[in-house]
Amino acid sequence: MALSASTNLPHHVDRVTAVFVNEDFLRHTSELVGGTLESFSVDGDTAGAFSTTTVRTIPTNRMPDIARKFVGESLKVTQLESWDAPAADGSRLSNITLKVSGAPLDVSAVQRLVSDGGSTRIELEGTVTSSVPFLGGKIAEAAEPMVGKALNIQSTQAQAWLESH
User: Fold this and answer.
1) Dihedrals φ, ψ of 141, to 5°?
2) Which tens digits make up the pLDDT trace of 94-150?
3) pLDDT score at 129
4) Do the beta carbons of residue 146 and residue 131 sit within 8 Å?
5) In terms of Cα–Cα distance, which of 163, 164, 157 is closest to 10?
6) Is the dihedral of CA 12, 15, 21, 23 positive or negative?
């Protein structure tokens, strides 16, 4: 299943990037959906190429009942992001991989923070797949809207965070 989203924020790419790697912001977005931020780490200097690892526990109460029977009341999600150094105009690219403990899902996405004057256009493109024979497509189809929403929360909440901090 395909993920695709785009959002515009009236802030420079460097400010948006700083929010996306702010542990307090990540804790806020985790708690917003009823989850918890278990851990967060940054490897490298965020002024250049770097990577992050974010581990969250999220509730499954919004998943279809059939899926909850397999995965339980919560999921542990590890989000790995590999950020490129900024382009000449400040734009950034991040390759995102989600690993969901206890669920047969593979999520990969590319997030672009495109410099647009003093603003940033956030573009997200990715895929959700499942390796389960015969049922994999249905599992990915059921998970895709929730994965898309989870990835989009970061973009939409960044605006409010930047305005209040």
Assistant:
1) -65, -40
2) 999 988 887 777 888 999 999 998 999 999 898 877 766 655 566 556 665 666 566
3) 75
4) no
5) 163
6) negative
Alpha-carbon gap, residue 26 to 6, rounded angstroms: 20
pTM for the predicted model, two decimal places: 0.84
Q: Pseudo-torsion of CA 75, 23, 153, 9, nearest 10°? A: -160
Distances (CA, A) of 113 to 77, 81, 150: 23, 13, 17
**What size, in residues, is the chain?**
165
Rounded-to-integer distance, Cα 19 and Cα 155, Å: 10
In whole angstroms, what is the distance from residue 7 CA to residue 156 CA? 7
Distances from the Cα of 60 to the Cα of 51, 108, 129, 138, 151, angstroms: 27, 20, 18, 17, 16
**133 or 26, greater pLDDT:** 26
Class of residue 126 by CB neighbours under 10 A (exposed 0-12, middle 13-18, buried 19+): buried
Distance of alpha carbon 50 from alpha carbon 107, whole angstroms: 20
- How would residue 91 be classed by pLDDT, with cut points 50, 70 and 90? very high
